[in-house]
Amino acid sequence: MTANEFSVVKKDMNDGFATIRQEMATKDDLKHFATKDDLKLFATKVDLNDLRVELKDDIQKGTVEVLRAVDKIVTKFDKAEKDHAADKLLHDRHEKAIEILKQKVGV
């Protein structure tokens, strides 16, 4: 980029920034926007940080409660599945014993 091209770009940028500065609010404009009492209604960084910590704790507690509930469900399902498997195994043994008896008796 030549010095002349650089100067043109610099002038265009300065003109753009000048336009932005004209549209920006001044301190006097802000005085009409909010009073000190109005500013008390806005959250500070400390307030936002405290809120973030509270939300994080609540989410972690909620996650633990959800995991406990899921664990209860899975435990009940697992128990039912094991009971079903044991019943099926016992039923199969009885069926096999009945077949053996039928063969010996000749029915």
The gross shape turns out to be elongated
What is the ordering of alpha helices and beta strands? HHHH
Biggest β-sheet description: none
**Fraction of residues in helix:** over 70%
End-to-end separation: 105 Å
Number of strands: 0
Poorly predicted regions are none
3D architecture notes:
The protein is mostly helical and 107 residues long. The chain has a domain at 1-42. Helices cover 87% and strands 0% of the residues. It has 4 helices and no strands. The longest helix has 61 residues, at 45-105. It is elongated, with a radius of gyration of 39 Å. The termini are far apart. The model has no long low-confidence stretch (mean pLDDT 83).
Short note summarizing the structure:
The protein is mostly helical and 107 residues long.
Summarize this structure as a short list of keywords or feature phrases.
elongated; 107 residues; mainly alpha; 0% strand
Topology:
Layout: H1 3-23, H2 27-33, H3 36-39, H4 45-105
